[in-house]
Amino acid sequence: MTNKDARVVSTDSTDMCVACDIDLATCDIIYSAEGALYHSRECGIEDFKHMYGADAERYFNECVEEVTPEDIGLVETSIFTVYSKEADMTTIFKDTVRCSNGSMVSTEVVGFYFGEPNEEDTEQFIGSLKATY
Ligand SMILES: [Zn+2]
User: How remote is the CA of residue 88 from the centroid of ligand 1, in Å?
Assistant: First the structure.
């Protein structure tokens, strides 16, 4: 009926924002609406104008769902730790890997703690980037 039927989510053609070709695997939040994926709210509303004209923003807001690249299987993340003996400190890293071809999207520091690596502290200090004394 309309071209939205052609935009069914598939695992190998959903890496780009439908409206602007930005790589969705690098986004923190993806906007999913009527089977199409957008990197921003603005892109979604702009695209909806083709179908809904002046009502685009209202329709978009009604059906949009905010998801993460991990939620929809674009990327996989894994946590690992690196221990520095001199500082007696463990740094927690998060790797993000693209599912379709296994390529690295990003590596980021997500936390640290004093002492040697252990699962309990790693879990506890993810998201903790500051030690307050
Ligand atoms: Zn976009």
Answer: 44
User: CB of 35 within 8 A of CB of 56?
Assistant: no
> What is the pLDDT confidence band of residue 7, given thresholds at 50, 70 and 90?
very low
Count H helices, E strands: the chain?
3, 6
| Edge-first strand listing for the sheet containing 89-98 | 75-84, 89-98, 104-114
Tell me which residue range forms the domain holding 26.
Answer: 3-67
pLDDT at 14: 58
How many distinct structural domains can be found in the chain?
Answer: 2
Instruction: Please tell me the predicted confidence (pLDDT) of residue 6.
Output: 42
Q: Measured in angstroms, how far is the CA atom of residue 58 from the centroid of ligand 1?
A: 18
